[in-house]
Design a protein that fits this description.
- There is one protein chain.
- The protein is mainly β.
- It is built from one helix and 17 strands.
- The longest helix is centred in the N-terminal third of the chain and has 16 residues, at about 1-15.
- The N and C termini lie far apart (about 50 Å).
């Protein structure tokens, strides 16, 4: 009986050592519902009809509202190589059982010498995560199979806000926040890659202060002190303004129930975007 006992113990040990395989999720259109903060970083290298000055680094930050039934509406601020455009458009989406996501949006893009907006369908494909709280999709050509869009590398990152049952106010963005921004200065005394990291303290009365370390193209690294005003509208859109002799404006939308926000610098000549993440008490061990 001893060998049988040993075999039983060994079999039990193996069964304990092998982790249980989790069942694959089963998603529907209803898993993608609510208000999402959007960031869409990338590069437009070539595009038919685009003004030459609009080609280059790109970012789009804004608000995506999904009805959970296959329809979305979008409002955002976009920077095309430092040319700022406020956009509003609609689209449709479908989610497969394996949680892959397909979005077709009718986006107004700048065409012709004056950059007039023309509605053009674009398709994005990717997947949901975190129970529908986040999504990541990549721009591709419309239709199946998804083809590479010539001259464009753009991905879209979505984070559900969670404040979907009530109107937002300044109180939904208050406290201490980590600030992280990066991108490109297209025109100015120090053009090139850009990064800003620091901390902002926002009260719930519309004022903020902060400090950050800023790097312009590796040629100028300095600390900056920031103080200004901010506002959160009823749709959870955010605007921050401050001045260092030049007026600066950052716009975006809340994410994660006000624990964060997506931001874009809505100023001509730069393609810079980033996030606010609320600082919370740590859970470090002793």
């Amino acid at each position: 009986m001893k060998p049988l006992t040993c075999y039983a113990v060994a079999a039990l040990a193996v069964s304990v050592a092998i982790p249980a395989i989790q069942a694959a999720p089963s998603c529907t259109n209803g898993d993608f519902a609510g208000v999402y903060g959007m960031q869409a970083p990338g590069t437009i290298l070539s595009a038919p009809g685009f003004p030459a000055g609009f080609l280059g680094p790109f970012n789009r930050v804004g608000r995506v509202a999904s009805d959970g039934k296959g329809n979305i509406s979008v409002t955002n601020t976009a920077s095309y190589n430092g040319n700022i455009i406020v956009e509003s458009y609609t689209g449709t989406y479908s989610i497969a059982a394996d949680c892959t996501l397909d979005v077709v949006a009718l986006v107004g893009i700048p065409i012709g010498p004056g950059g007039s907006l023309v509605k053009v369908p674009f398709e994005f494909r990717g997947a949901l995560a975190d129970g529908g709280d986040s999504a990541a999709v990549l721009l591709c050509g419309v239709g199946a199979p998804c083809i590479v869009p010539t001259g464009n590398v753009i991905r879209v990152l979505l984070t559900r806000n969670g404040n979907n049952q009530r109107q937002c106010t300044n109180r939904d963005l208050s406290g201490a926040f980590q600030l992280d921004m990066s991108g490109t200065v297209v025109s100015g005394p120090l053009p090139g890659p850009f990064a800003r990291d620091g901390r902002l303290l926002l009260d719930d009365n519309g004022s903020f202060t902060g400090t950050a370390l800023v790097n312009y193209s590796g040629a100028s690294l300095h600390a900056e002190t920031i103080a200004g005003s901010y506002a959160v509208d009823s749709l959870c859109n955010v605007s921050l303004t401050w001045s260092d002799g030049t007026l600066h404006t950052w716009t975006g939308t809340l994410t994660d129930k006000g624990n964060g926000a997506n931001l874009i610098v809505s100023e001509t000549g730069v393609v810079i975007a980033g996030t606010l993440r609320q600082q919370k008490a740590g859970g470090g061990s002793n």
